[in-house]
Design brief:
Blueprint lengths: L1 H42 L13 H18 L5 E10 L2 E3 L3 E3 L2 E3 L15 E11 L6 E12 L2 E7 L7 H12 L9 H8 L2 E3 H7 L14 E2 H16 L11 H10 L8 E2 L6 E2 L19 E3 H13 L4 E2 L9 E10 L4 E5 L4 E3 L3 E9 L3 E8 L2 E12 L2 E12 L2 E8 L2 E10 L4 E2 L3 E3 L8 H5 L5 E3 L5 E4 L8 H17 L7 E9 L3 E3 L2
Parallel strand pairs: 11-15
Antiparallel strand pairs: 1-2, 1-5, 3-4, 5-6, 6-28, 7-15, 7-27, 8-12, 9-10, 13-14, 14-17, 16-19, 17-18, 18-21, 19-20, 20-23, 20-24, 21-22, 22-26, 25-27
């Protein structure tokens, strides 16, 4: 009986200990949650303290201390919170401790005189008492969390239309025509489309409920449905602008161009088939885009042409005589979309890789026969190297690019017999470029930033095709010589970057924050 009693006491004691331990563990989870949410709440005030009247350590610290109780109130907690502002850099949190008027201050702020970096992080400690039912009394649970301002940027690498020539307009009309409409958009309209970006969130808003945060990548819609969504999204931007101002906002030209389209084809596509955001794809377990990724900006012209190329498959697009080449009675362009356009969005270290599109341009010369020029895109990867913000506004970004140039072979068919007669090469950049720098007001890209070469930046300069191995006496020499200068703009309009790469800074979010520890 004594043994049984001892066992019962031990069993009860073990159960009591388990209950108290469970309360402590549960309390620890709650306190950690308060520490996390409080750190995320408080770090958003860091940028406010960068400007007067909070430019002194003492004033800035007092401002943050005054805000701290609201974190408890907002989260319905009674935890005791303390905060230590500091610098998060290279994976390490460094508080700059000091004393002013007998009070501890935590960090140097706006333009510090000692040269220290400005505060960009806060460490919050949360302490709360947890009842111990069987032991009696209270135990204290303490947790810490560090949140930092982690500015993010959206960027792309690939072809970008700096201007629209008559050949490019003809190619774009033909490409978009594969979606079931006769297209005739002027240069202003195409430039407007090329310089108009819409965020994923704006597409969701414009969809009238068809798209949500959970299905925006996977919802399969017809060309007409996508056109309606893009038209409404751009119209929402236009509503905030004055289209009568000088210069005319690019969105105004884009809206007019979209209104002239009528995608009557029956092909459906999902957004994940048209663009990849931070490596998203249609295969596998596709997760919902994060809040920050929903801010990724998508180029209107790029998405529309990609949708058209996807719908067209590998069928040849008839350009007729629109390229204006003497002696060429017909031209056909065949595109193979090997990889959809890639957009990077995120903090420093985020990457994007060029869209891989192979193409073949066939020229039917009256005196020579069929000339086939197969070309492939230059490949490249862009990496966000740095983002610098001040007072929650962009100061500068740096994006590095690694580029590999492309080349192709010209084949001549005489009397139906093909023969390789020459090699066309496109001189371009090979290697890692010096990081490109971007700053306002050139982010996002505008017609002005494109014209002055500030955004996008081009790795490898202006690619110029050159032909080798072609006999001056060859009957194909005149048409190939004439075709050379227009290869780059034609391929660029089709979404192919030859021998170089354009790196564009599409958007910046200086207010992005994240838990870092």
């Amino acid at each position: 009986m004594i043994l049984v009693a001892i066992c019962m006491v031990l069993l009860l004691w073990g159960g009591a200990f388990g209950v108290d331990l469970g309360l402590t563990v549960d309390g620890g989870r709650q306190v950690q949650a308060i520490a996390d949410t409080s750190a995320l709440d408080m770090v958003r005030y860091i940028s406010v303290t960068e400007w007067p009247p909070y430019s002194s350590q003492f004033a800035a610290n007092n401002y943050l201390i005054a805000k701290l109780p609201y974190a408890d109130t907002d989260n319905g907690s009674t935890a005791v919170l303390t905060q230590v502002p500091g610098v998060w850099q290279n994976g390490t949190f460094t508080p700059n401790l000091g004393t002013v008027n007998g009070k501890q201050v935590k960090c140097w702020y706006y333009y510090p005189s000692n040269g220290a970096p400005p505060c960009n992080a806060i460490k919050v400690t949360a302490a709360q008492s947890v009842p111990q039912i069987f032991v009696g009394g209270q135990s204290s649970v303490t947790k810490t969390s560090i949140a930092a301002v982690t500015p993010e940027a959206g960027f792309s690498i690939g072809s970008y239309l700096a201007g629209v020539t008559s050949q490019q307009s003809a190619v774009l009309d033909a490409v978009l025509g594969t979606l079931g409409t006769s297209v005739n958009i002027n240069a202003v309209g195409y430039i407007g489309l090329a310089n108009t970006s819409v965020t994923v969130s704006q597409l969701i808003t414009a969809s009238g409920g068809a798209l949500t945060t959970s299905n925006v990548l996977t919802a399969s819609l017809t060309g007409a449905q996508w056109l309606a969504i893009w038209s409404d999204a751009v119209a929402n931007q236009v509503a905030q602008l004055n289209c009568g101002s000088t210069p005319t906002p690019e969105q105004c030209g884009a809206s007019t161009a979209l209104a002239s389209l009528d995608f009557s084809g029956g092909t459906s596509a999902s957004l994940c088939q048209l663009v990849s955001i931070n490596g998203s794809a249609c295969s596998g377990n596709l997760s919902t885009l994060s809040t920050s990724e929903l801010s990724a900006s998508l180029d209107a012209l790029q998405i529309l042409t990609t949708e058209a190329e996807l719908a067209n498959g590998t069928n040849a697009i008839d350009l007729g005589t629109s390229l204006g080449l003497t002696g060429v009675s017909d031209a056909k362009l065949t595109l193979s979309l090997v990889q959809i356009p890639q957009v990077g969005y995120g903090p420093v270290g985020a990457t994007a890789t060029t869209a891989q599109v192979s193409s073949s341009l066939q020229l039917n010369d009256i005196g020579v026969g069929l000339i086939t020029i197969p070309l492939s895109a230059a490949s490249g990867t862009a990496t966000l190297a740095s983002v610098t913000c001040s007072d929650n506004s962009l100061k500068s970004t740096n994006i590095a690019a690694v580029i590999t140039a492309a080349s192709g072979t010209i084949s001549l068919s005489v009397a139906g017999v093909p023969s390789n007669i020459a090699t066309v090469s496109v001189a371009g950049y090979n290697g890692t470029s010096t990081p490109f720098g971007y700053a306002p007001p050139n982010v996002p890209p505008t017609a002005t930033s494109v014209a002055n070469g500030s955004n996008p930046e081009t790795a490898g300069g202006t690619p110029v095709p050159s032909v080798s191995g072609l006999s001056p006496s060859s009957p194909a020499q005149p048409v190939i010589t004439a075709a050379g200068p227009i290869l780059v703009p034609i391929m660029q309009a089709a979404g192919v970057t030859l021998g170089a790469a354009s790196v564009a800074d599409l958007s910046t979010n200086c207010g992005a924050v994240a838990l870092v520890q």
